Backbone:
């Protein structure tokens, strides 16, 4: 009996290797989607000035410990997926009333102003980031979005545009849970 | 001559460096440390490239950051810890040895060990087969043939009779 099972060994080895290959080739798997190390950590130290030409104030660490659940969104006018997620972010803030804070990443002030004038401004605060704040937050590119709880702790993170599917499945339930 | 010139120009080719002159530190010792550290740090948006060799903007940002921290007096390990705290182990091109990476680091040696054991078992079995009692002698062979022939005759005898 044992000898018979031994003949099955190559088949099992093949199945395991083939399984890994299939996993690696799966279309929904994105090798760039690296989990963040920032979850459950307090918001990092940063202090960003306002974008000149906008009527919203800048953003600093102290603004994120106000006892309220907030969303922090890294965006830039040159970033195409940011344009795609913009309407969903706007709808989300209108629907839930969660303050949306922006970090304008490596952008020209006039470009950012024109971009927000065209699409509308859902952000209540926007900090202009020449690049270092993104590193402090462990951000690899734009857009990236964080949810920060009332005590200033990062509770959720997403790389890439926030599409309705993710908002319905993850963002809204979490905001509900954090608020209660 | 032409071929020689071609080979010579090939020899002139050196790996492209992404470090910009403006980023470099004046202190050659610190700059050397920064270069060595940068080679260990992954450009997090690139495919398997260090920040030392990448032209991505984040690689530039991280190179400047590494140098700033070295100038501020950080040890090499402190700089790496600072980045790991933000980007996780992914930012290190060489994965650290810890329980979750034991399979990665020691897996190949485990497979090698299994192979050695398999070869050992195989040769031991071969030797065990060789150690069986020796083959029959010529007298034994003839006696065996005779006995078998007798048996066959006995079996056939009554049937034919």
Residues:
């Amino acid at each position: 009996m044992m000898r018979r099972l031994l003949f099955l060994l190559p088949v099992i080895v093949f199945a395991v290797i083939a399984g890994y290959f299939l996993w690696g080739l799966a279309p929904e798997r994105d090798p760039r989607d690296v989990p963040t190390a920032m979850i459950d950590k307090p918001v990092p130290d940063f202090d960003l000035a306002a974008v000149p030409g906008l009527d919203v104030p800048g953003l600093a660490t102290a603004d994120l410990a106000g006892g309220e659940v907030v969303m922090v969104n890294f965006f830039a006018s040159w970033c195409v997926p940011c344009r795609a997620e913009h309407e969903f972010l706007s709808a989300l803030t209108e629907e839930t009333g969660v303050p949306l804070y922006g970090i304008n990443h490596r952008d020209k002030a006039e470009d950012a102003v024109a971009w927000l004038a065209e699409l509308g401004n859902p952000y209540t605060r926007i900090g202009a980031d020449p690049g270092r704040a993104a590193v402090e937050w462990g951000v690899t590119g734009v857009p990236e979005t964080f949810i920060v709880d009332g005590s200033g702790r990062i509770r959720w993170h997403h790389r890439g545009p926030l599409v309705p599917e993710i908002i319905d499945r993850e963002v809204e339930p979490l905001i509900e849970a954090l608020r209660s | 001559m032409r071929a020689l010139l071609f080979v010579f120009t090939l020899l002139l080719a050196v790996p492209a460096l992404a470090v910009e002159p403006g980023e470099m530190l004046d202190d050659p010792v610190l700059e050397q440390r920064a270069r060595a550290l940068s080679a260990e740090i992954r450009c997090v948006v690139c495919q398997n490239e260090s920040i030392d060799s990448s032209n991505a903007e984040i690689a530039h940002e991280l190179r400047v950051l590494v140098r700033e921290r070295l100038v501020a007096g950080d040890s090499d390990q402190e700089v790496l810890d600072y980045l790991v705290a933000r980007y996780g182990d992914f930012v290190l091109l060489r994965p650290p040895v810890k329980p979750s990476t034991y399979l990665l680091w020691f897996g190949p040696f485990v497979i090698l060990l299994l192979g050695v054991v398999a070869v050992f078992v195989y040769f031991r079995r071969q030797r065990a087969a060789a150690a069986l009692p020796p083959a029959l002698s010529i007298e034994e062979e003839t006696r065996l043939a005779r006995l078998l022939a007798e048996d066959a005759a006995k079996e056939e005898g009554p049937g034919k009779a």
